[in-house]
Specification:
Helix content: 55-70%
Number of strands: 4
Radius of gyration: 24 Å
Order of helices and strands: HHEEHHHHHHHHHEEHHHHHHHHHHHHH
Structural class: mainly alpha
Strand content: under 5%
Number of domains: 1
Largest sheet: 2 strands, antiparallel
Distance between the termini: 61 Å
Number of helices: 24
Strand order of the largest sheet: 1-2
Shape: globular
Length: 531
């Protein structure tokens, strides 16, 4: 009986899920506004470096003004959604590399002999490392993760889950100074100056712990993928029904590999890969030259108004950071075309772009889902519910009589909960840093340690909140590769796939920070836990 009930559980389409969430948020904003749900938080005035009190209240979206805002901003919310443009640009480049056969050739030729567990580890590691440049990992590695697993003979759904989990739960780390460090550091320094106006925090202050965390998180993520996720998804099959209503399963991997064997000839493939390698070297050299300063016609992608090279490369106005997705698309596109010419897999530009159009047609349903996801996220932000919750949790942290290890653990849990409702690192750190940094400094803990505590904590819940703008790409791709039409991957089902990662990596993040604190290891070059 329990089994029958489980089988009858509805599998809501993600679009339906987002529509339901929109209705819940609008209704919740009305109820909370009736009770004057509000909070006060402290922020630092960038001009005076003094604390200012800000009152934030829940906005009723069921009111005349609220409904007018929802309707009038629907189009702009979708069009201005950066995820949409990043995804389309990325998929154009990857699509060219795929329809010409480059990705299949590289993956079949180079990855066939590699242990699948090593491939999983490398994908997770690259996903965690990708946060060095904004959230590019979500738009690039989720589609690539699917193909990587598919052409390695495994279920692409597991590759999608691995890539998303790696970027989301490893968001706070990388093996080098990146975008997050650049954006958070000024707020960390301002918060530290509330206690000591002479203190300085370096960009590399968390480098050692980030490198170690990147490796540890990737190992744990690989274990979860191989032990739970791969088994959960099982074989990659399509379920169809015959004339009698009986369900048949077709093994898609077998069909695809047979087709590839017929299409690709070894000699042509070698020539194509040689062409692609030459194109990759040329394109790579050009882009690298564009980020080298003080050479003839170099530094085109740098923000030369900044003095420090890290700010020139990853600063707010950096052309490299703003155009990185486009750079990757050009790289994939040019190398894909070079392969197609060498391997003779494309005969004309008309054929190339016709096949590209067919490949991109798969994301039609994803684009519709994106529309409703953008409305949900925009409406939730407009209500201020998330900001109020973060402010209340921050005030709770301020008033708790904690010190040492208990302060670290409670602070991480509060930040992790806050991240479910406000996914923007900068927004949270603006509210939390004036409280957490001084609290830890008064207990002889450095601002650099407070910052890594924050980064680790928000990474703990990044993958289990539908308010994350890139969550929709994850479930969208699950449905693109899902061959069981009776069971869509909706919001609930997508989140359930992240639960094993969430549990394992939450514990891992806590242990990393706790052990680092107890042993007293350096956080980075000349950067320590204690002041």
């Amino acid at each position: 009986m329990n089994k029958n009930k489980k089988n009858k559980r509805p599998y809501l389409h993600p679009i339906t899920g987002y529509i339901i969430l929109i209705a819940i948020v609008i209704l919740l904003s009305y109820v909370l506004s009736l009770f004057d749900f509000s909070a006060t938080y402290s922020s630092i005035n960038t001009a005076t470096n003094e604390l200012e009190q800000t009152i934030v209240e829940v906005k009723n979206m069921l009111s005349y003004d609220g409904m007018k805002e929802i309707i009038s901003n629907a189009a702009s919310n979708f069009i201005s959604f950066s995820t949409l443009s990043s995804l389309i640009i990325t998929l154009i480049g990857i699509g060219i590399a795929q329809v010409t056969g480059l990705l299949q050739a590289v993956m079949n030729k180079k990855l066939a002999k590699i242990n699948p567990k090593i491939i999983t580890f490398l994908l997770f590691l690259l996903a965690a490392f990708s946060s060095i440049v904004n959230e590019v990992g979500y738009t690039v590695l989720i589609p690539l993760g699917a193909l990587l697993f598919l052409f390695n003979g495994r279920n692409p759904l597991a590759g999608i889950a691995t890539a998303f989990a790696g970027v989301a739960f490893g968001y706070g780390i990388s093996c080098f100074v990146g975008t997050i460090d650049i954006s958070l550091l000024p707020y960390t320094i301002r918060a530290a100056h509330l206690i000591d106006s002479d203190i300085y925090v370096k960009m590399t202050s968390n480098l050692y712990i980030m490198i170690a965390s990147c490796i540890i998180i990737s190992i744990v993520g690989t274990f979860v993928t191989e032990k739970y996720i791969v088994k959960k998804f099982g074989r990659y099959v399509s379920k169809t029904k015959d004339d009698l209503g009986n369900t048949k399963e077709i093994e898609y991997l077998d069909l695809q590999y047979e087709e590839q064997k017929k299409i690709m000839e070894e000699t042509k493939q070698k020539v194509g890969l040689k062409y692609a390698l030459i194109a990759a070297i040329v394109v790579g050299f050009i882009f690298i030259y564009m980020i080298i300063p003080n050479l003839p016609l170099s530094g085109i992608l740098l923000d030369t108004s900044e003095e420090a090279y890290a700010y020139q490369l990853f600063g707010e106005n950096s052309y490299f950071q703003a155009g990185f997705t486009y750079i990757l698309a050009i790289f994939f596109g040019v190398t894909g075309i070079a392969y197609g010419i060498g391997a003779k897999t494309i005969k004309s530009d008309r054929e190339l772009f016709s096949r590209l159009g067919e490949e991109l047609s798969k994301i039609g349903e994803l684009l519709v889902t994106l529309f409703f996801a953008t409305q949900f996220i925009a409406i939730f932000r407009a209500t201020n519910i998330g900001t109020v919750i973060v402010s209340l949790l921050t005030n709770l942290l301020r008033n708790l009589p904690l010190s040492g290890l208990m302060l670290i653990i409670v602070a991480m849990l509060i930040i992790a909960i806050s991240n479910i409702f406000v996914t923007s690192s900068l927004t949270k750190w603006t509210i939390i840093s004036p409280v957490l940094v001084p609290m830890m400094m008064q207990l002889n803990m450095s601002p650099a340690f407070a910052q890594i505590v924050f980064r680790a904590a928000e990474s703990m819940t990044n993958g289990i909140t539908p308010l994350l703008t890139y969550f929709v790409i994850y479930i969208g791709y699950l449905n693109i590769y899902n061959k069981d039409s009776d069971k869509s991957y909706g919001i609930r089902r997508g989140l359930s796939m992240m639960v094993p990662y969430f549990i394992a990596l939450l514990i891992t993040w806590l242990l990393i920070i706790i052990i680092w604190y107890i042993i007293g290891l350096p956080l980075g070059p000349s950067s320590h836990i204690n002041l």
